[in-house]
Write a structure and sequence with these properties.
- This is GP-PDE domain-containing protein.
- It comes from Teichococcus deserti.
- One of its GO terms (biological process) is carbohydrate metabolic process.
- By secondary structure, the protein is mainly β.
- α5 (about 110-120) runs parallel beside α6.
- The longest helix is centred in the middle third of the chain and has 17 residues, at about 415-430.
- It is built from 13 helices and 71 strands.
- Helices cover about 10% and strands about 40% of the residues.
- The strands form 11 sheets. The protein has a 9-stranded mixed β-sheet.
- It is globular and about 125 Å long.
Length: about 1000
């Protein structure tokens, strides 16, 4: 955790400096400190203002007449106290004395007046810091004024040119330093902290990223003009999602990760989810649902219901009469003045009471409930059988539940009984909130508060390339995030809004919404205003290419719109676009803010297509840059994919050599820009051992070049080849989860070609599970152990493994491998019993024993009902069947008859050099459907004797008649409709007579036709 404290510098943008709105919003948005610059009027009133000007010579009445919004420090302290009670958070206060010397010249003693006010307001604790550039006034406060008045406020020295050597002397009277950001260094920070001082830095006015330098130095806090920007960034690097509710109230959902939610004003329902969450109800009557995790729930002001979970929660009802449901690991905190709280606790619940001594309480009955009453009229009411295990008082006394019950006498009064009845009804009404599903807002940066990566302007931020966090401009030109007020339009949510007029460009602001469930229903909402009523701009909102809304706001006042959209609707891209058209492109147009998309209904059964590939049709345009032909990523990274080589990745929306998108609007060019692309994705959600259908479409945008594509999965080649031309061709292969190197990394790598910017086109990549992992069954036939319990312990164990239809999915196995491991022992030897084929015993990267067919010379094909018998010999532990695991049975399955319908064979010319020959064979699928596998038999003429010396594109064996049988490899087993593949071989022959083969000698065959 960074523990970086955020100080609202004069409040926060976009509100006027030191206005009540500026300070209130800074605290609402998560500032830890309020900061007030103070001046003194001619008649001795301390006021909050940055510039001294004529204030020391102006009466308070005259100052207010000139500036009615000016606050007194007295009122500012009241504001902080009120916000602290409303928000349920302790708020620190920094008070800077501006120009004490100038005031003293007018006979005004600011320091003395300040101390008097702090004492009068009982605002004298350590959460107050007094600062100034004036060393003398700070030393006077430290040495004389504060001790004499019993004030324990900290002293903060503002300055520029601090040195490491001077820190010990400063620490004699200063508690902290506030340093200009241009002058702070890591050695200065380290020296100050080593001397016992904290270090604060002023002033952060830009992006969240600009805070990182200060965080890396280890500073304790930062003064910021952009509280919401700073809060979001600090929380983000701490692993928290920062979310804000609506001042009008409503439901705000967290995520499955850790969240911090600020409910703001209004009656809210806050849902925390699975992470370690912080839920702030703030103002209004709120319901806080912590969920699982170790959560902090703060109700704030109002009648709140805090529903804790099973974790180690901290529950703070705050001001007002509340309901608190605490788990067995929870801590409940209650302070004097917090009202009447109805509590449901458990034996492990700990209650901590602030400002309350054990001797001041009363304990009464209320039916079966137990009432612990306090002097101010507040109470903790524990339901029947729901008393906390222990209560810890401010005077150090601890009472157990039994001790508390023993103190009870008499009945609580009718007024308290009526309050408790209302709280019980409130609790019952709130309980269904526990069952509400999480429905977080899926829009990234929907209120345009994240300004990272953008450039500064006096009116806000902009990006000349049309990219801001979460959004891109699909057209050319810049995007703008305004923090000012234009024609009466300022942000409706947060500090920023987006101008869709850009700078002489209509903006098509787009985001591919991630996390959308196919078929689920969502509520899309947004707010629009018009900053230029002289023009007739029109806004078109599309989702997945479908028009959701088209129109224009009536004027400069914000108008809110809400529509239902369906996940995956339209072109399936889930891309949301706000496109302005019309108008004069004069720099002022339609304003957009507060975009949100929340799930309202689950998808119907079967809506999910099961595709594990993220962005398989390349429709996700997030974080990409504009080109007139589409989008691109210069660093080679697009959503879901990265180029393992060097150079950029392109998402085309145009037509090249007749090639346009096969699915949706975009396709990717594997030629990139003078670079062969190696497009890779680590596929998530893969089940080890399960079977998947990997499919994709290819086309060639440059037929003059001879590009080739190699597709690997887990480091193994699963397909290699090239499309025939510009028409899209579909390909599909079978892959196994966790196969190869176990990475589940899918790579499409182009090779060859002239790197002229046009190459192979890829689209519509999908990977869908077709079969669960093989059931791992084996039967122990016999086992023998020796030297039990010694270092020489070992065993022999024989097993049988009987194949079923599940293993073979209706086909036969032409090759196979089995991996085994044994707990606590090493398998040193393994062999097959009564199996005709040569069997290899190897070890994989995990050290497991692997039995497999040996090369291409196997002699038996396995079918359902066949049994593999094998024996293991191992050392290091006694044998137990329960400790032996069949890790996988990798059966290379060939479908039965019918797989070759529509397939044709073209035998190339035989090249014969007397003692040997070379032959290539083309297989062409002229059928309407693709095939998943193939086997080809070569009928040898009588007397023809061949010895295969090499083979490519296939494996080879002999059948019972001595004919050669060629079987597909993994990468070319699937042949799409209209597709083709090749295999070939070299062989030697003894008689020296030339040999040639006719196409008729080659024929497709299924395992069912083979008798081996």
């Amino acid at each position: 955790m960074t523990a970086l404290e955020i100080i609202g510098h004069r409040g926060t943008n976009p509100y006027p400096d030191h206005s009540a709105d500026a300070h209130a919003h800074a605290l609402d948005w998560g500032a830890d400190w309020a900061e007030f610059d103070i001046q003194m009027t001619a008649d001795g009133v301390l006021v909050v203002a940055h510039d001294t000007g004529s204030i020391p010579t102006t009466s308070y009445a005259a100052l207010v007449a000139a500036n009615p919004a000016v606050m007194t420090l007295d009122a500012a302290i009241d504001l902080v106290r009120a916000k602290s009670a409303e928000l349920g958070r302790e708020i620190k206060v920094s008070i800077e004395l501006k120009n004490p010397v100038a005031h003293a010249a007018r006979g005004l003693d600011m320091a003395d007046a300040l101390v008097d006010l702090l004492v009068a307001k009982d605002f004298t604790g350590e959460d107050v810091s007094l600062s100034s550039f004036d060393r003398a006034v700070l030393q006077r406060l430290h040495s004389d004024l504060l001790p004499a008045a019993g004030v324990t406020a900290a002293i903060d020295y503002l300055g520029y040119g601090f040195t490491t050597a001077g820190m010990p002397a400063l620490a004699e009277w200063a508690d902290s330093l506030s340093i200009n950001s241009a002058y702070v260094t890591a050695p200065i920070v380290a020296a100050a902290q080593a001397a016992g001082m904290k270090v604060y830095v002023w002033t952060h006015a830009g992006t969240g990223e600009e805070l990182q330098r200060l965080i890396d130095m280890g500073v304790d806090g930062v003064y910021t003009d952009n509280t919401r920007v700073a809060r979001d960034y600090v929380d983000r690097i701490d692993g928290l999602n920062t979310l804000y509710g609506d001042t009008a109230g409503g439901t705000t959902s967290g995520t499955a990760a850790a969240d911090v939610i600020y409910g703001l004003q209004g009656n809210d329902i806050l849902l925390g989810g699975a992470g370690n969450d912080v839920l702030n109800g703030d103002g209004g009557d709120d319901i806080l649902v912590g969920g699982s995790g170790d959560n902090l729930l703060r109700g704030g002001a109002g009648r709140d219901v805090l529903l804790g979970g099973s974790g180690a929660d901290t529950l703070v009802g705050g001001r007002g009469d509340d309901v608190v449901v605490a788990g067995d690991k929870a801590i409940l905190r209650y302070a004097a003045g917090d009202g009447v709280d109805l509590v449901s606790a458990m034996a492990g619940t700990r209650v901590e009471l602030d400002g309350i001594a054990a001797g001041s309480i009363t304990v009464r009955h209320l039916g079966g409930a137990l009432v612990v009453g306090f002097a101010d009229g507040g109470a903790l009411v524990f339901g029947a059988g729901k008393i906390a295990g222990s209560l810890h008082f401010a005077d150090g006394v601890t009472l157990t539940a039994a001790q508390l019950s023993a103190l009870a006498s008499g009945e609580a009064d009718a007024a308290l009984a009526a309050t408790v009845q209302q709280l019980r009804a409130l609790r019952d009404a709130a309980e269904p909130a526990r069952d509400l599903p999480l429905a977080p807002d899926l829009i990234v940066n929907g209120s345009f508060e994240n300004i990272d990566g953008t450039l500064v302007r006096d009116w806000g931020r902009y990006d000349p390339d049309g990219i801001m966090p979460g959004w891109v401009n699909l057209a050319s030109g810049r995007v703008e995030q305004h923090q000012d007020t234009v024609a009466g339009v300022s942000a409706v949510d947060g500090a920023y809004w987006a101008d869709l007029d850009g700078n002489l460009n209509h903006v098509q602001l787009a985001q591919t919404v991630e996390g959308v469930e196919r078929g689920a229903t969502y509520r899309l909402s947004f707010a629009v205003a018009d900053t230029d009523l002289k023009d007739a701009e029109v806004l078109t909102v599309t989702y997945g290419g479908l028009v959701v809304w088209q129109g224009a706001p009536k004027g400069a006042a914000w108008e809110s719109f809400s529509f239902a959209v369906t996940g995956g609707a339209g072109d399936g891209s889930d891309t949301l676009v706000f496109a302005q058209s019309g108008g004069k492109l004069n720099g002022a147009g339609l304003a957009l803010d507060k975009v949100a998309m929340v799930k309202t209904a689950e998808a119907p059964a079967g809506a999910d297509d099961g595709n594990l590939i993220f962005n398989g049709s390349f429709e996700n345009i997030n974080a990409t840059e504009y080109r007139d032909w589409g989008r691109y990523a210069p660093d080679g990274v697009i959503r879901g994919w990265e180029n393992l080589g060097t150079g950029r990745v392109e998402q085309h929306r145009d037509t090249v050599a007749g090639v346009s998108a096969a699915d949706g609007q975009y396709w990717t060019d594997l030629d990139g820009w003078q670079n062969n692309v190696q497009l890779a994705q680590d596929v998530a959600g893969v089940v080890a051992g399960a079977t998947y259908r990997l499919s994709f479409q290819l086309a060639d945008t440059d037929l003059k070049d001879a590009e080739s594509l190699t597709v690997t999965y887990g480091g193994q080649v699963v397909w290699q080849g090239a499309p025939k031309g510009a028409a899209w061709e579909s390909f599909a292969v079978s892959v196994t989860g966790g196969a190869g190197d176990g990475s589940d990394r899918l790579v499409f790598a182009q090779t060859g070609g002239s790197l002229n910017g046009a190459g192979l086109a890829l689209d519509n990549v999908a990977m869908v599970k077709t079969a669960d992992p093989y059931e791992q069954r084996f039967d122990l036939v016999s086992a023998q152990s020796w030297n039990s319990g010694t270092v020489d312990a070992g065993f022999n164990a024989s097993f049988s493994y009987t194949l079923t239809e599940q293993d073979l999915t209706g086909g036969s196995a032409r090759s196979w491998s089995i991996a085994l491991e044994h707990d606590g022992a090493s398998i040193t030897t393994a062999w097959m019993n009564g199996f005709a084929a040569p069997v290899a015993f190897t070890r994989d990267s995990a050290g497991r024993a692997v039995l497999t067919t040996d090369g291409m010379n196997y002699a038996k094909t396995l079918a359902a009902g066949d049994t593999l018998s094998f024996t293991l010999q191992g050392k290091g532990a006694d044998f137990a069947q329960s400790g032996t695991h069949l890790v996988f049975a990798d059966l290379d399955v060939v479908p039965d008859a019918g797989n070759a319908q529509g397939m044709g064979i073209e035998a190339g010319a035989t090249s014969d050099w007397g003692s040997g020959l070379s032959q290539q064979v083309s297989l062409v699928n002229a059928g309407a459907q693709g095939i998943d596998d193939w086997m080809v038999r070569l009928d040898l003429a009588e007397g023809t004797e061949l010895t295969i010396t090499s083979v490519w594109g296939a494996s080879v064996s002999r059948d019972a008649e001595g004919d050669l049988v060629f079987a597909a490899l993994d990468y070319n087993a699937s042949v799409a409709a209209g597709g083709s593949t090749v295999f070939g071989f070299t062989a030697s022959h003894a008689n020296g007579a030339p040999v040639s083969f006719a196409a008729s000698q080659f024929g497709f065959v299924s395992q069912a036709d083979l008798v081996l």
